[in-house]
Amino acid sequence: MWSGIGRVVNLTMYGLTVRETMERREGPGILDRLSSAATWVHSPSHTTLPTCAATSISPYEEAFPNPCSGLAMRPGRRGSRPTSTNWSAVMPRPLTALATLPGLRRYFEALCVNTAGIVEDKTVYDAAGISRMTAGAYERLLSDLFVFEALPAWSNNRLSRLVKSSKRHITDPSLVTAALRLDERGILRDGNLLGRIIDTFVLSQIRPEAQLSPLRPRLHHLREKDGRHEIDLLAELAGGDVIAIEIKASASPSASDARHLAWLRDRVGPRFLVGAVLHTGPRPFALSERIFALPICSLWH
User: Fold this and answer.
1) Is 109 exposed, middle or buried (0-12, 13-18, 19+ CB in 10 A)?
2) What are the residue ranges spanned by the domains of the chain?
3) Of the residues 70, 79, 205, 253, which has the fewest C-beta atoms closer than 10 A?
4) For the chain, what percent of residues have pLDDT higher than 90?
5) C-beta of residue 231 within 8 angstroms of C-beta of residue 248
6) Mean pLDDT for all residues in the chain
7) What's the whole-number mean pLDDT along residues 201-227?
8) pTM to 2 decimals?
């Protein structure tokens, strides 16, 4: 009955990231690079800045591969339709065995519609036509199966008007596109949905790296109660410093897209290490003090 204390580490095994599939496993992850004053993010003119080289395809495609690829789409085929809309074909095996539970599929679809968002519990379980108690049981089930994960809200004694509700995320964006029977065109013509898919995708790339980071980051989101300021992803490091990330479905972010990051920087002072606006364009550039625009491909380049 050896406990293994100090010799055994628990790691949550998430799905493969783009960086892993490209066999670029060596070197620090994006959070580790952002945290270090000696790395490229603090030297925006440095020659090692990651870029998505200009090609004949659009900046959107270069920086962010087809969000409908994987389980839901035939990779690399623009405008193709889902290969299958069958529940058993796109859901993890343990979940397909439970698909006969009343309302489970409808509840999962309601979560998919609201991925990367803060929404009232009642809105979700009413959409699925189930009770609050049943919804709570289903949410725990989906969490135990690593299909769903809640991103907790960040709290700070310098900021008093922050919401405490978690942000709901489906762990794999391809499950969202499959469950909702979405193709690429369907996503691109809905700006709100596009933002949610990209947000879900980025978190699916950062979440596994956070498990291995020596910084021991805890991932959160931030939002004021009046909605005036919100930040998609905030990594709080072991020493209390923070890295803040905004995710934009834009190829050319401006200083306006970094206004929430600048607000947080000014409020928490030195604890704010760096902010990044991840965007769908090919080039990195500075936006303001300690805030940079970085292409989404920086996650694996």
Assistant:
1) middle
2) 18-299
3) 79
4) 48
5) no
6) 81
7) 92
8) 0.81
